[in-house]
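Predict the 3D structure for this chain.
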Amino acid sequence: MAVDLTAVIVAVTQDQPRVLVIPGSLSPRRAAGGPPSLDALPSGPLEPGHRTLEAGLRAWVQTRSGARLGYVEQLYTFGDRDRMRDGASGARRVLSIGYLALLREAGATDGGGAAWQAWYRYFPWEDWRHGRPAILDRLERPLRRWSESGGRRADRALRQERAAVAFGLDGAAWNDERVLERYELLYEVGVVAEARRTSPVTLAAARRPVDGQPMAADHRRILATAITRLRGKIKYRPVVFELMPDGFTLLQLQRAVEALAGVRLHKQNFRRLVAQQGLVEETGRLITATGGRPAREVRFREDVVLERLAPGLRLPVARAAD
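Done. Predicted structure below.
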């Protein structure tokens, strides 16, 4: 059994949350004239020369993508059955230790063969900033067929509850933090392409997989885990400052948080929360490149930057009429 280190590297650019990937077009299979491969997260094997897991991750990411990581935290250990590596003694199962890393926009440049992609390319049903995504209408049909196909009445009721809670059906509220739960349910139902690698096609998946770009191995599951972690963390720790430039406007901060959470926020309530929690201070300068009137520049207070356990932002989600 081998051990890999895999990084989900996130930046927010132009109001889009982006993740650094190794494009499938650059894979060895594609270069050799083989079938097209899928985007993959930067990863590499843990080697004896790596002093720590994190040091190994940083070294591999810099080698594969050219990015120098700042903030890094460990996510989870992944070991799906389709995570295999060919070797001299045959295919070996690979465990991957996943990490979440955050970069500021100024450092979010392509390099080393890597490219930035909007994470909603892989999870289009997660972006509610412009209202309920149309793709949910297509997802709802196989979800309901799956819910109704359980054997006993209790099984069908449980399936219906899981689908409703995860996807906000039948009057249930949408919870932005259930990213991994939604992906896992779609995998179980069989409507994401990755499910077809190891499972028979189910009734719900009789047609083509739903939109949303699949990824190599279990990398979309790793990305879903990272999005879940980050969406939860911005509500109780000010990690969003890791993604912001040194100086920014309150509107830029709000747009960055909205991009990560996938929801629109109530403007005045958001600013009230930022002020109440004492997260930022004015720099005394104005930012003119706002597309409108000049806006006051702010920055995160020094004690907030030093104290990572400070409160995060309790997102004041805007109603449709706001």
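The chain has nine helices and nine strands.
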